[in-house]
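Predict the 3D structure for this chain.
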Amino acid sequence: MRIIVVTDQYAPMVGGVPAVTRGLAVGLARRGHAVTVLAPSAGVRNAAVMDGPTRVRYLGSVPWPWYPGMRVARIPVRAVHRYISAAAPDVVHIHSPVVLGVLASRRAVRSGVPVIYTNHYLPANFAGTAGDGSPLLKTWFYSWVVGFANRCGYVTAPSETALGLLAERGLQAPSGVISNGVDLEKFRPGPPDPALARRYGLSLHRPVVLSVGRLSPEKRLDVLLDAARRLVASAQFVVVGAGPQETALRASAARAGIADLVTFLGHVPDADLPGVYRLGTVFAISSQAELQSLATMEAMACGLPIVAADAYALSELVTHGANGYLFASGQGAELAGYLDNLLVDENLRLAMGRESLRVIASHGRESTLAQWESVYALMAGKYLRAAA
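Done. Predicted structure below.
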């Protein structure tokens, strides 16, 4: 099939959505499909590159004013029309309902091409805030997203929670849940690598509470630092990721007197990331804005027990008392208590890690790619029959 993937976040950007959209595009291309990605460039100029077997068209962009590091394309009407016409796609799959998504959707509909939309966002992801922002922002956000979704041929979200948020606000288009998926060949259990531990300055003789994600307000790393301050058991906290709050979080750890307990690794290259997960003892996520959480899935695939905030879709991955614990959002003391339970009980960690592996087995990327192929074929077939 000929597929166009439209996204406002793609490599070399770092984060969950760039990883998911790249995994989808490259995975589909490796399965024999002709895939073109439309995404904002890192600057004002257009660029065309090959990402393995995938053709990527980067369109000139400007910074998104409310979220550091995010960019949005400059109304490239002619370019979008030209690329869609040249690719002659069977389907257009949109992952962001902003400039590129709106233009691609309109052009595809006029050309008789089915449009699929996947929602990855919450109000906090657009506003760069710890919560969903003001009631006015939340109302505007869902009005825009659901309005866009209802103009598409099919709508998906990565979790029941994510799809439910749209459904309860008026989603009427045909819809379904398809996991973002995780590469189970890349992320899998294994022994810790001493050389990797030395490279990142980590000790193999102390348990590691690992956290992976963008360092931005909605991820609530302040809660993790609060838990580190309260922890009774001996452990080192390892934070992987970069973002606008990195400097403030480092300063906060120093003020709290826990700078020696918390190691900020910054951005870790993809090649090292599975090995870093395998250095972990427990995975902790304090984020309040997850419609699924790729990092949590990767940790589960590496056999780690999870302690997660009971917010949005994290409870679909973590069953309290089975493969980890859920703590009330924002409650560092509760997070610390669950971490203490796991850090002092190896048998409990092993049992919960095995359950993580069992749960994540149904989220393998090859399985999700097959689901996408079925949706694409169904939608393309419907449009062909309608045209006939």
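The two ends are 19 Å apart (CA to CA).
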